[in-house]
Amino acid sequence: MSRTIAIVGLGYVGLPLAETYMDQGFRVIGIDKDENKLKLLNEGRSYIADVPEAKIRLFVQSGQLEVSSEYSSIAAAEAVIMCVPTPLNQQHEPDMAYLIEASRDMSGHLQPGQLVALESSTYPGTTREVILPLLEQSGLRIGVELFVGFSPERVNPGSRRYALQEIPKIVSGITSACADRTEELYQAAFHKVVRVSSTETAEMAKLLENTFRFVNISFMNEFAMLCDRLGINVWEVVEAASTKPFGFKAFYPGPGVGGHCIPVDPLYLQWKAHQLEVDSTFIEASTRINRSMPAYVVSRIKQAMEDSVLTGKRILVLGVTFKEDVADIRESSSIEILRLLMAEGAQVEYHDPLVTDLKDSGLELTSAELDTEILEASDCVLLAVHHKGLPLDQVVAHASLVFDTRNALRGRQGKARVIALGDGTSGHFKSLG
Ligand code: SAJ
Description:
Layout: E1 4-8, H1 14-23, E2 27-31, H2 35-42, H3 53-61, E3 65-68, E4 79-82, H4 97-107, E5 115-118, H5 126-135, E6 147-150, E7 169-173, H6 176-187, E8 193-195, H7 199-230, H8 234-241, H9 265-275, H10 281-305, E9 314-318, H11 333-343, E10 347-351, H12 372-377, E11 380-383, H13 392-398, E12 401-404, E13 417-420, H14 428-431
Parallel strand pairs: 1-2, 1-4, 2-3, 4-5, 5-6, 7-8, 9-10, 9-11, 11-12, 12-13
Antiparallel strand pairs: 6-7
Helix pairs in contact: 4-5, 7-9, 7-10, 10-11
The chain binds ligand SAJ.
């Protein structure tokens, strides 16, 4: 008799997790409120690039994967893993609605002996202060009849480097018995499981991982602005510093920090710090720097065009996703840059092989064909996201001016004058000749 778990939330975390458990022979009951997702899965289709369609079809046809919007179907599962979104609200504060709704909806269907494990990235204390009281409404005694744990997700969308089961998994529980159950569940699918002493420790470890990244990227953005002013090429500086085999990790400047993890998780930590009246100076400064990058990019484009007036100028933006080779525009700095350019009266177009239109962002723009004509007609081409498939040789061959925010054009020869973010083109030491 195969083991059965339920997974709540079948997005970029939940669906790969379901695949990982089904690869180990588990039966998975997938719960999601999005009827379109359920329809696609039942048709044997995958909407997550990293989860092969052929596997979904097999799992569904064999009955190993059953999906539903009803929590009543979790009764047969030994464990329920919650992978629902933890976004920010309009005030850039934690939006716990998905977590609260899922916890509340499932509590009436929980059975004695079940484990509930939360994976969503959130502020320390969430499992104990927010989720636990809602699950206790089941009437089940925690650590005796119902077990509750936290294990942060470490899905890396678009990455081929690590299979999910190869990425060490931190586990924790409200009680020791809860941690035992959580540890056992994840040991059944992951190569390495790392048990920590509390759910708060596990929640905080996840925030450290991503805030570390957020702060370092923001420092590189500030460092790049200084290099521009000094006339020093930041990309060469990073390359040189990277020769140090210890005590240094390279991060790179960019047009801003997007996505659903890196710009979000640190603000969950910041919110908790403010609740406790503790400073979060680094996060606040990093947020300010990263959010200033779109305007900085526009200012450097003006400098490159030697014209502070962009009215009527044709500017083509290459790449509107939040990072290369991932079809996701959440918190994308390209969208902000498009808005700023339009506000300056520029005639903007974009090309992104992964994004056909920007209706969801309120911009009436569709992805333009990237051909010689549009490149030659553009006063400036902005390389915002360096997707693997972009024909960069064609860009440098036919564009007159390219502002490269990723240093992706280094070493390529062509007609275009290429200026890179942070390359110091017009800075102090460069002007000394
Ligand atoms: N970025 C820079 N400079 C850098 C690195 C990233 O400007 O040196 C920008 C990207 O362009 C993007 C944003 O930051 O706009 C986030 O990029 P990311 O590479 O961190 O991408 P994410 O959001 O997919 O981060 C995920 C995270 N994984 C999990 O949370 C489980 C993160 O912890 C990983 O380190 C990261 O993938 C990764 O290494 O790819």
